[in-house]
Specification:
mainly alpha; about 0% strand
Length: about 80
């Protein structure tokens, strides 16, 4: 963020790149949801890693929706 701020011409406003960075950081695509897998394992799930593909799909959709939203708001 510091390097993006250095390139920013208006120091008191977020640049478009900074907004996209914040949104992507907040959306955070979950590669391996270790906490949920550990909880499922501790509760005796037969296949605690069965949630990997649904988690990947959900977090990817969330990231795409976030990027599209910020791009639409940037144009306004």
């Amino acid at each position: 963020m510091k390097s993006l701020q250095e390139k920013n011409k208006e120091k008191n406003k977020l640049s478009n790149e900074m907004a996209v960075f914040i949104v992507l950081n907040t959306a955070s695509i979950q590669i391996i949801p270790t906490t949920v897998i550990a909880i499922r394992n501790s509760l005796g799930s037969e296949n605690p890693t069965a949630i990997l593909f649904p988690v990947w799909i959900a977090t990817t959709c969330a990231a795409i929706a976030a990027i599209l939203s910020v791009k639409i708001l940037i144009k306004k």
